Amino acid sequence: MKVYLLLLLPFCLNGGTIEKIKPVATFNVEVSEPSDIQYDEELKSFWIVSDNGVLKECDLEGKSLRKAGFKGIDFEGVEIVGDYVLAMNETNRKVHFFDKKSLKLEKTIQLSYGGGRNKGFESIAFNEKKQQYYLFTEKDPSYLFIYNKSFQLENQIELFISSDISSARWYDGKLWLLSDEDRQIYLLDDSYKVVKTYEIPVINPEGIAFVNGDLYVVSDDFEKMYVFKTLK
User: Fold this and answer.
1) Which long-range contacts (CB under 8 A, 24 or more apart) does 39-43 make?
2) Residue 189 lies in a domain
3) pLDDT for res 44
4) Is omega for the bond preceding 23 within 30 degrees of 0, making it cis?
5) Total domain count, the chain
6) Engineering a disulfide at 145: which of 7, 80, 135, 173 sits with its beta carbon 3.0 to 4.6 angstroms away?
7) Is residue 67 part of a domain?
8) Tally of CA atoms within 13 A in the half-sphere of 166 that contains its CB
9) Whole-prediction pTM value?
């Protein structure tokens, strides 16, 4: 009888392979309950929002540099578009535009989405090439809402990728999603299908950002920032 050996590779149920990665550095974050993070290439610093409705600029080790005077209710997503820092308020479905230099609140966009107070938009990303905003609901269900630059709704897509979606980033021409509950990061293709999955040993990961290819993840519960080397 012939015996055949099969090489089994870890595969994700939603497609692609799974790679376990470990952090190379960890920093405390001077933001209470950080819920999202984005890197500012111009200022060489991070913008971090919190569940307490606070927006802060922090250095690359998580130390606070500046804080916006306006305080929201529940900031869950942050993005940089031109001269503005956008903070997304899940509870009241608002997107606040802060001037990067002055940190003054310049304008607010009111969006429409039903459900409970904690069932609004969980994350935001901006596709510079297409000039589109990608907004995501966390779960039950997870939706991708695509808005144009004027925040007019262009498309709505239900996603079946993970237990939840807690953060989204458009980086290097690709869309990346983070699952808090699954502790995984997903690289998507143009049809919003998973190409690659990264498993991270971080409890309650709430936000992701990229700095020269390196991945930064913030933990809400532990108020820490984890650094991972360039993803391949």
Assistant:
1) 39/209, 39/210, 39/211, 39/216, 40/80, 40/85, 40/100, 42/100, 43/100
2) no
3) 98
4) no
5) 1
6) 135
7) yes
8) 27
9) 0.91
Task: Enumerate residues 6+ apart whose C-beta is below 8 A from 76.
Answer: 35, 36, 49, 51, 88, 89, 90, 120, 121, 122, 123
Rounded to 5 degrees, φ, ψ at 142 are: -95, 120
Answer whether 129's CB lies under 8 Å from 137's CB: no
Residue 11 covered by a domain: no
Tokens of 68: 């916006």
* Structure token digits, residue 40: 């500012």
Is 66 part of a structural domain of the chain? yes
pLDDT tens sequence across 56-72: 999 999 999 999 999 99
Which CATH number do you get for residue 146? 2.130.10.10
Tokens of 193: 């299908």
Query: Strands, E, within 152-203: which ranges?
Result: 153-159, 167-171, 174-179, 184-188, 194-199
